[in-house]
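ingest -> validate -> predict -> emit
validate: passed (alphabet ok, no gaps, 329 aa)
predict: started
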Amino acid sequence: MTKAMKKFVTWLVVILVLFIIFLFMGPLFILNEGNQVVITRFGSIVNTYTEAGLHFKIPFLDKVTTYPKLVLSLDGDEQRIPTKENQFIIVDTTSRWRISDPAKFYQNFTNLENAYNKLSDIIDSSCRTVITQNRLSEIVRSSNIINDAKDTNEDEKDEETKEIDSLVNDATNNEIVTKGRSELCRLMTLEANKLVPEYGIDLIDIVPRQIKYSDELTESVFNRMIKDRNQVAQAYRSLGEGKKAEWLGKLESDKRTIASEAYRKSEEIKGNADAQAAAIYAAAYNKDPEFYAFWKSMESYKTNLKNYPATFSTNMDYFKYLYNSKGKR
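emit:
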């Protein structure tokens, strides 16, 4: 082997060794699916990668910061927020977001922990802004399905139920919802998205995970429920008293009608009986006037004398059949 050939082999070996050392220093890295990276050199961003694969960096000089490219979730803290009617509720939200620009995200937060804290403040602020501008019914309800169901069943109610509904004041129980919870969630997201894009974040949505009444509002709601139920009970009682008076009046009227009809029939029967008795008496008198007079006197004695314990004189025509030995004078 010539001297030049030996020199070439030596350099080749040196280059190969240096290349192996360079590979061991890690100039290449693998970006997995679902991740994205920011390459920084001396604190400055030199490159970003969002597609999975094999990528290059300068060993010892470049730093690789990996962020998830998937949708992330953030559970907020409970907030005590007043509604438009100045009624306090406790709202607990959850939101979905993702990193849309890793370079901006790195410049603003560096790590996820800082992003969570900042994003939580933005979401809490947007949630408070929207809720304070809307009524309680808009926040706890998503539609007017209660009112729609009531209108649908209106024709199926009987007269008594309709009468009760007319006595019960439903104005405070069925407020009309113009936006609803879903629309308020959309408004919260829009409000928050006014700020988050400059941080390299795409906020997908904000959803109230839980809405609770505060202690004072809970008591107010319970009192309102009791008042509404008492109002319904009073409506039933009023309707019952009205029906009672109606039926008692009808009963009294029917009673008078029946009694009047019975009296009329009794008088009619008594009149017919008196007429028949008079006819019989007249017929008997015409057959034997003397016997008729005797019989009527006996009936009179039987009826009247028992009421008089003593008779001071019998010398009168009335006793002609009682004290005459022949039964007559």
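DSSP finds nine helices and nine strands in the chain.
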